Amino acid sequence: MSPMKFLAVLAGGALFGFGLALSTMVRPEVVLSFLRFQDFGLMLVMGGAVAVTLLAYLLLPRLLGQPLLGGYFHQHVAHWNRDTLQGSALFGVGWGLCGVCPGPAIAGLGTGNWTLLWALVGIALGALVQGWRAKA
Amino acid sequence: MDATLSLFPLGWQHYLLGGLFIGAGVALLYLFTGLVGGMSTVFSSTWSFVVQRPFFQQARFTDSRGWRLVYAAGLVLGALVWWLVFSDGTPLTTGVPAWMLLLGGFFVGYGARLGNGCTSGHGICGLGSLQWPSLLAVLTFMATAFITANLVAWGLA
After folding, report:
1. A96 contact B CB<8A
2. Predicted ipTM?
3. For residue range A92-134, what is the model confidence (pLDDT) as tens digits?
4. Residue-wise DSSP of B64-128
């Protein structure tokens, strides 16, 4: 990885993590209060993030031939099938139980919240078991 | 005014601003590298360093595991900057019991990887590229999360 790519990826992650902390999404209690219809802030977080992402994904490939550091603009194509349905349903059960999703589990460590390591370990184990059971 | 208070009892500005920062992070990654930055894949790609099974040795994991770890380190760094500069310096804590974090985390990890995306992969990147399978995924996990969170609250009450 070139130093420039390293810095760009790190900076992108840092903005993401700063946003998760500023919006208090790193607090499981805030996420759970959304899921219990007590505070609809998560909709604003999601809406703001999707709006900026939508503009970037729509405009950047049209304005630029390729990314600033070369390569090409990737597209992650999502598919709707039984795995997506079951996986998303299970994800929601876990999210509703603990109020932590993958981004905040990682970013939360930057706020000194070591208790979140339990969630981080749980997510890593879940990903391990999923890959262990899956066919390559 | 009253509606704003009841929908957002803790205020709304920090939510929207935080969301814009998250989007800016995804956009910056895309601008410089063209990469799509969901968060759950790092939990599979990092296992490829130590687990030799064919599933984890797929190119989509081994080719991306380096930048995904750097992206995750950035996440910690950004949250650390917020904590050092904008909080009162007390480490954040949570009252959610350890077993719920561990068990919930397990379902989050298993489900996000089986369904190929989480709140950022399907929610932000997927909706941001207008993919209807991601919209269905978001509606599915929101529904089961609403049910679970309310059942837990009801059970604890």
Report:
1. yes
2. 0.97
3. 999 999 999 999 999 999 999 999 999 999 999 999 999 999 9
4. THHHHHHHHHHHHHHHHHHHHHHS-SPPP---S-HHHHHHHHHHHHHHHHHTT--IIIIIIIIHH
A113:B35 CB<8 A: no
- Count of structural domains within chain B: 1
Q: Is B139 part of a structural domain of the chain?
A: yes
Tell me if B67 is assigned to some domain. no
- Decide if A59 touches B, using CB distance below 8 A: no
Q: What domain range is A65 assigned to?
A: 3-133
Interface of B with A in 16-45 (CB under 8 A): 16-40, 42-44
Residue range(s) defining the domain that contains residue B110: 94-157
Instruction: Give the count of domains, chain A.
Output: 1
B8 vs A41: CB contact, 8 Å cut-off?
yes
CA distance B15 to chain A (A): 4
pTM exceeds 0.90, yes or no: yes
